[in-house]
Amino acid sequence: MNLFQLDEQDNSRINSLLAHLTVQYESPCNPLFLQEARVLSSRLPEPLMSRLNAFRYHEDHNGLLMLRGFEVDDRQIGPTPNATGKEIDEQSAAREGFLLMLLASFLGDSLGWANQRNGALLNNVLPLKDHESEQLSTGSVADLSWHNEEAFHPFRADYLALMCLRNPDNIPTLVGSIQDVHIPVEIKEILFEPRFIFHTDKNFDQGETYVPVPEPVLFGDFKAPYVRLDPAFMSPAPGDEAADRALTYIIDAFDSALRKVPLTSGDILFMDNYRVVHGRKGFKPRFDGNDRWLKRVNITLDLRKSRAVRPGQRSHVIITD
Ligand SMILES: [Fe+2]
């Protein structure tokens, strides 16, 4: 694992910056803060930013970067919320949200979806009572099948960042990198062709009239491809048996390459959404205020490409209807 460990000096520098930002801006999704976040990120420790920059600049790694050692005060963040929604997602654990947004804004621009929690730019990942068996980040008992985030959508995030606020039962996040997957050339050639249908998940119900067109699974450099996969929400083009076999092959290959990463309090995991899939094993939720609680942000390198489907030039929220 590509790991950067924050030390005491780093934490002290981060703490004073966060103390200042929470007073000045109150919310990490305050538009005035979002406008300045990239500039303010230069006040974070330089070795940390240098490492994050290298993660973005090079692709000679597996697409994962873990920042470890950020100090989260378990009492100060309060109990794990028992609901989600734009306000609670963006306002809860605001100090921690500020750091996540600073780091995200250094890498690119945060991105929200109007269909997901009303466009919240920071999302809480935690178990909800009525979602226990759902294939959603708020599910629990059911395995959350691995996937690229919003694989079906052309404006999906380039990176995802997850910050762990608490995880007392060490529930692992599952990650799999295309770098660890070997695909024979003849199968790769099929996966590079537009022979696969991507369906939308429950958050993005596009109605019965929506007809997806076949698209490739792999793209970019044939020798070091990017990947888009969401096995629970995709299929080969109807009647295409070779595409069916190729899809089965790459799904099995990712299954074998999956690694368990149990995030602990203060961990911040960056994932390249073009090179890494992620998921979660099922777990038994507590619903006692101490459940696993992560914060998530979607990061795009090119906000402009979604301009036609954002309500304003400054908006970071994609409208999908
Ligand atoms: Fe996801």
UniProtKB/TrEMBL annotation:
Asked whether the UniProt record includes Iron among its keywords, one would answer: yes
This chain belongs to which protein, by name? Arginine beta-hydroxylase, Fe(II)/alpha-ketoglutarate-dependent
Q: Which family does it belong to?
A: Belongs to the clavaminate synthase family.
What molecular functions are annotated in GO for this chain?
A: 2-oxoglutarate-dependent dioxygenase activity; iron ion binding
Q: Would the keyword Metal-binding turn up in this protein's UniProt record?
A: yes
State where Fe cation binds. 147, 149, 278
Give all residue intervals belonging to the TauD/TfdA-like domain.
230-297
Alphabetized, the UniProt keywords read:
Iron, Metal-binding, Oxidoreductase
Origin superkingdom: Bacteria
Signal peptide feature range: none
